[in-house]
Amino acid sequence: MAGKYLVLPVLSAKDVNRFWKKVKIQTNGCWEWQAGKARRGYGQFGVLSASGKVRNCVAPRISYSIYYLIRQIDFCVCHICDNPPCVNPFHLFLGTETDNARDRAEKGRSKSQSGSAHNLAKYTEKEIKDIREQYASGVNPRFIAAQYHTSRNYIYEIVHRRKWKHIQPIKF
């Protein structure tokens, strides 16, 4: 996002009131977003754009924008509290993508997820073991692929450990 500005939509007083109605103040100081959330837990807030379309905006950005009266943000909005649903403007700070990555690493959140813990995973570790066992016992890869609604090529990637490498090979 470096060099690009994110221009947030103009919020009416009605939008601002609607935004704060979706927030619950916690005893730990976080103001947690109670409405729709994106995959990683960050709140999503729908705002009607000038073109008449609803635009989903990240709730911490909206909170920062409302509190500090900024509409144009060319940085990441980062959390001091490390709580994605938090929209408390006192828990938010601006930083570059590098700052955000450094903060994430210092807090031990930069590990990439693998296997079924990955947010795009279609299979479980048990299913991967089953695929490998079927292949090892001579089941046709096309049949396995049809059974798991995938391609024969992906089955080969699994059984030859190009995918799901962390699952130990079958021992006979």
Descriptive account of the structure:
The chain is of the alpha+beta class and 172 residues long. It has two domains: 6-106, Homing Intron 3 (I-Ppo) Encoded Endonuclease, Chain A (Alpha-Beta Complex); 115-159, no CATH class. The chain has six helices and eight strands; from the N terminus they run βαββββαβββαααα. The strands form four sheets. Strands 1-6 form a two-stranded antiparallel sheet. The chain has a two-stranded antiparallel sheet with strand order 2-3. A two-stranded antiparallel ribbon has the order 4-5. A hairpin with a 5-residue loop joins strand 4 and strand 5. The termini are far apart. The relative contact order is 0.11.
CATH topology of the largest domain: Homing Intron 3 (I-Ppo) Encoded Endonuclease, Chain A
Return the domain count: 2
The protein's oligomeric status is single chain
List the helices and strands in order.
EHEEEEHEEEHHHH
Given helix and strand content, the structural type is alpha+beta
State which percent range the strand residues make up. Answer: 15-25%
**Helical residue percent?**
25-40%
Contiguous runs where pLDDT drops below 50 for at least 5 residues: none
What radius of gyration results from the CA coordinates?
Answer: 22 Å
General form: elongated
Q: How many DSSP E strands?
A: 8
Q: Mind telling me which CATH architecture of the largest domain this is?
A: Alpha-Beta Complex
**Count the helices. How many?**
6
- Termini gap: 51 Å
